[in-house]
Design a protein that fits this description.
The structure holds two protein chains of two kinds.
Chain A lengths: L2 H23 L4 H13 L2 H26 L7 H19 L5 H28 L5 H21 L32 H20 L1 H11 L1 H6 L4 H28 L10 H12 L6 H14 L3 H4 L6 H23 L1
Chain B lengths: L2 H14 L1 H15 L7 H18 L5 H29 L4 H19 L25 H5 L4 H19 L1 H11 L1 H6 L4 H27 L11 H11 L4 H24 L6 H4 L1 H14 L2 H6 L4 H11 L15
Helix pairs in contact in B: 1-12, 2-7, 2-10, 2-11, 2-12, 3-4, 3-5, 3-10, 3-11, 4-5, 4-10, 7-8, 11-12, 11-14
The chains are: A mainly alpha, B mainly alpha.
């Protein structure tokens, strides 16, 4: 084992120790937590289906974020891009659900979602490229604007007949719901789309000039510009691609999971995908296992309040701790070598 | 609306902006030294919880000591989180944005996980304290001197930070390590040590801002109680152009916007208040567009040159030149 591995293994062990201490602090037992999360994620077919249902948006967003990370961008606007995808896909559904055949409505909804997310991503990109506004703050700002827009629609023009409420807009007709495995939340269509986009991401990153140029831009924007790479276009494409992926994720959340627009429909999955992409670094292959693991934690931890009387936010604590220590471990490795 | 109503709206806006004043001044100090502590959102959540939990468990000691302990531990929490950012960014030379972002999520979830026993229970709060004599001055009295000790401390903090930044030698060095760390280093400044110091100091102030929510203006704690305020604080620092005085004024502007939003809500009842919380972000983006691109120059060409020059001097703002950059001594 080379020395660099010591730092990686060491940081993981430290992360686990920290997590164990946090659990002990509230009087819990780390071992019980582990089994409870395991049974919460894999105990029944329904629970496992939920793990799969959460995996799809995570994979989509993390794939998109790999493009922005490679270009050296922190696209914190991913949450808003998911939300805009959800909002945009509701437009054709509301317009055409009585008129067009169901499969056509579903396809137009997904396309609209992708477009909505892409536009929101491009908006952050234009603010960055032409307005010289840092993409982090442009992104966070646009997230809040998207939140406001969703709330306005839910309480304004799209409100439920009768009384508007935080429970969202009215559910649309069951014919437009994406088919699921049996009676569960997991949709094979959503999973297939997510896996296809992950595969495309891997291919683009490894085997195309576009991917190579993106890496060059990410490493040194000025140098690649001087060397004749259309750098600004490259940055904007990264935003557009990431926004598209987020938009599709939002669209699938509407079509497969919620069947309506609710406030906070992204349920922090965008930010969680940022953690996944950070952990994966530049390695697209490991997105799948990490996303699966994080999805397992998210769903498994829902069991904690029932079985151990602990808060389900432990999932976030575990995910955050792991990523933080791995980042610090990478730093140690670089400084020492 | 008569004068007394306007004064009461303004005084509420000023008082309720206090937590944000602490947080934004803290972040201004950190960013002034060239470090971005992106974890403000998580820091405020966690320190609000810690401050409340400590004050609640030490309630038996009496109101004043328990509050003091609460604020003290909140400041320590903020400094501890900032120390991780500083260690990762300054010693390990990793992306400070990445570490700050991870800490935002981690600390937010930690606050929910650890703070579960303290959700929605009554606890100690900062008592109101009107300053004698000063409170009787017309207009100024009700605006500034009829709230509590924390609010007065925030006024003091704003003034002292401004004096420190622009009228003292250490303040000059603080700005130097944010603008030209290499030059400061050549002149014998220990850039890395000072950046550590100001990152921790700024983090502690953000922590006090968190406790100001749970021990004063929101009087208590529950899950995600202060959600959004950390991001707003980061936006306000940009909006205020990294100048302590302008940052503080931006906090008050935000407070006034919020008060107006609740007034607007009673006239347009169908729109939820959340829609109005968007306003500061839209304003921030538009303001940044105006100041950081060439838009400002183009607009100012339409004005008489002297007016244009004064305006551009007051509006223009640029971040510390070395903000977020890694400084390598060798």
């Amino acid at each position: 084992m080379s020395k660099s591995h010591y730092y990686q293994v060491g940081s993981l062990i430290l992360a686990l120790v920290f997590i164990a201490v946090v659990i002990l602090l509230v009087g819990g037992s780390p071992l019980n937590v582990l089994t409870s999360i395991g049974s919460g994620a894999f105990g029944t077919a329904d629970q496992f289906a939920r793990v799969i249902a959460t995996l799809a948006p995570l994979l989509l967003c993390a794939s998109g974020l790999l493009f922005t990370f490679t270009a050296g961008l922190y696209n914190l606007g991913i949450e808003g891009q998911i939300l805009l995808g959800a909002i945009a896909s509701l437009i054709p559904i509301r317009l055409f659900q009585e008129v067009l055949p169901a499969p056509l409505v579903i396809v137009t909804a997904i396309v609209a979602g992708a477009l909505g997310g892409m536009l929101w991503g491009l908006l952050a990109g234009c603010l960055k490229v032409y307005g010289r506004i840092d993409e982090i703050f442009a992104g966070v700002g646009l997230n809040f604007v998207a939140d406001g827009l969703a709330l306005y629609l839910i309480f304004g023009p799209w409100k439920k007949p009768g009384v508007a409420s935080m429970s969202g807009t009215e559910q649309f007709s069951e014919t437009i719901w994406l088919p699921t495995f049996g009676d569960t939340e997991a949709s094979p269509v959503a999973l297939a789309i997510a896996l296809a986009i992950l595969l495309i991401t891997i291919i683009v990153m490894r085997g195309t000039y576009f991917g190579l140029r993106l890496k060059a831009v990410g490493h040194n924007l000025r140098a690649s510009y001087v060397l004749g790479i259309p750098s600004l276009r490259q940055l904007l494409s990264a935003f557009a691609i990431c926004g598209t992926c987020g938009g599709i994720a939002g669209s699938l959340q509407v079509l497969a999971v919620f069947h309506r627009l609710i406030p906070g429909i992204s349920s922090n999955l965008g930010f969680l995908s940022l953690l996944i992409a950070l952990l994966a670094g530049s390695n697209a292959w490991v997105l799948l296992p990490i996303a699966f693991f994080f999805s397992t934690l998210n769903i498994g931890s829902l069991q904690l309040p029932l079985s151990l009387d602990l808060e389900s936010s432990l999932a976030g604590v575990i995910q955050g701790t792991l990523v933080l220590f791995v980042l610090l471990g990478r730093g140690f490795k670089e400084v020492k070598s | 609306m008569d004068t007394s109503e306007i004064i009461s709206i303004l005084s509420v806006a000023i008082a309720t902006s206090t937590p944000l004043v602490f947080a934004t001044i803290g972040e201004t100090i950190t960013e002034g030294a060239g470090v971005i502590n992106l974890s403000a959102e998580g820091t405020i959540l966690l320190s609000a919880m810690v401050g409340f939990a400590v004050a609640k468990t030490t309630e038996g000691l009496g109101a004043f000591p328990s509050l003091l302990l609460g604020f003290g531990f909140a400041a320590l929490t903020g400094a501890a989180i900032a120390s991780i950012v500083a260690f990762g960014a300054l010693t390990l030379r990793q992306s400070q944005v990445a570490i700050g972002f991870v800490l935002t999520l981690l600390c937010g979830d930690l606050s929910s996980f650890l703070g579960n026993p303290f959700v929605r229970i009554p606890g100690p709060t900062v008592p109101s304290f009107k300053i004698p004599i000063l409170q009787d001055i017309p207009v100024i009295g009700p605006l500034f001197f009829q709230s509590d000790l924390l609010v007065y401390l925030s006024f003091l903090l704003i003034i002292l930070t401004w004096i420190f930044f622009y009228r003292t030698r250490p303040g000059l060095i603080l700005r130097a390590i944010g603008e030209q760390p290499a030059a400061a280093f050549v002149r014998g400044t220990n850039v890395v040590f000072l950046r550590y110091f100001y990152t921790l100091l700024g983090g502690a102030l953000v922590g006090i801002g968190g406790a100001a929510f749970s021990l004063d203006f929101k009087a208590g704690w529950s899950h995600r109680h202060t959600a959004g305020y950390g991001w707003i604080a980061l936006a306000i620092v940009i909006f205020g152009g990294w100048n302590p005085l302008r940052v503080a004024l931006s906090c008050y502007l935000f407070g006034i916007l919020q008060s107006l939003a609740s007034v607007a809500q009673s006239t347009i009842p169908n729109v939820p208040t959340q829609v109005f919380t968007v306003a500061p972000f839209v304003l921030m983006i538009l303001f940044l567009l105006l100041t950081s691109s060439t838009g400002l120059e183009r607009l100012l060409k339409f004005l008489p040159p002297r007016v244009g020059w004064v305006l551009s001097q007051t509006i223009r703002s640029s971040p510390p030149a070395a903000l977020g950059r890694i400084f390598q001594q060798d």
